[in-house]
Amino acid sequence: MNAEKRRQILERLRENNPHPETELNFSSPFELLVAVTLSAQATDVSVNKATDKLFPVANTPQAIWDLGVDGLKEYIKTIGLFNSKAENVNKLCRILLDKHEGEVPESREALEALPGVGRKTANVVLNTAFGWPTIAVDTHIFRVSNRTKFAMGKDVVAVEQKLEKVVPKEFKVDVHHWLILHGRYTCLARKPRCGSCMIEDLCEFKDKVYPEE
């Protein structure tokens, strides 16, 4: 895919959604960090159902630490892998209290040092909480980038590196959200909705799927 076609795609996505936001509910960098950590192999909808009950009770590192692992599990037990996630969130709260005065660090290295926080989670927090032009690649972005030929790569790191290279600076803060939402609602895994896709004519996917006439 050439640079002009990529720009047209990004301009359409921006025109359709000028100020994209995550679908995770949060009101502070810490709430976002917890929500993204819980969202691994889980839907944003399921995470929001849990955090909508958790955050009114405990939404600071100290408050969640005070709940303890078992107390936290009661709030997040509807989310997949909740046992290990409760352990990780509990530990990261302790680290934030001990090393960062209870604040979420605006540092990739410090974020990735937290239990349960990998590169993708760090990228989401840096982008969404702090406005960094980082691009977190999840399954939706990986699929859309490869399927459309926008930024092809064999793994998420390769796709991230390609996106960093080919996305113009003016789009970098928002491209993460645009591609996720496009993958979540239009460019679906099993049956993409090509007939109602705003970038269908620019997409280089050869096996486009259309509804039956």
UniProtKB/TrEMBL annotation:
EC number: 4.2.99.18
InterPro entries: DNA_glycosylase (IPR011257), Endonuclease-III-like_CS2 (IPR004036), Endonuclease3_FeS-loop_motif (IPR003651), Endouclease-III_FeS-bd_BS (IPR004035), HhH-GPD_domain (IPR003265), HhH_base_excis_C (IPR023170), HhH_motif (IPR000445), Nth (IPR005759)
EC class name: lyase
Residue ranges occupied by any HhH-GPD domain in the UniProt entry: 38-185
SUPFAM superfamilies in the record: DNA-glycosylase
Catalytic activity: 2'-deoxyribonucleotide-(2'-deoxyribose 5'-phosphate)-2'-deoxyribonucleotide-DNA = a 3'-end 2'-deoxyribonucleotide-(2,3-dehydro-2,3-deoxyribose 5'-phosphate)-DNA + a 5'-end 5'-phospho-2'-deoxyribonucleoside-DNA + H(+)
Cofactor note: Binds 1 [4Fe-4S] cluster.
Single GO term (MF): class I DNA-(apurinic or apyrimidinic site) endonuclease activity
Cofactor(s) the protein requires to work: [4Fe-4S] cluster
Amino-acid positions noted as binding [4Fe-4S] cluster in the UniProt annotation, renumbered to this chain: C187, C194, C197, C203
Signal sequence segment: none
Keywords, comma-separated and alphabetical: 4Fe-4S, DNA damage, DNA repair, DNA-binding, Endonuclease, Glycosidase, Hydrolase, Iron, Iron-sulfur, Lyase, Metal-binding, Nuclease
Family assignment from sequence similarity: Belongs to the Nth/MutY family.
PANTHER family: A/G-SPECIFIC ADENINE GLYCOSYLASE/ENDONUCLEASE III, ENDONUCLEASE III
Protein's job: DNA repair enzyme that has both DNA N-glycosylase activity and AP-lyase activity. The DNA N-glycosylase activity releases various damaged pyrimidines from DNA by cleaving the N-glycosidic bond, leaving an AP (apurinic/apyrimidinic) site. The AP-lyase activity cleaves the phosphodiester bond 3' to the AP site by a beta-elimination, leaving a 3'-terminal unsaturated sugar and a product with a terminal 5'-phosphate.
NCBIfam families: nth, PRK10702.1
Entry protein name: Endonuclease III
Organism listed in the record: Shewanella corallii
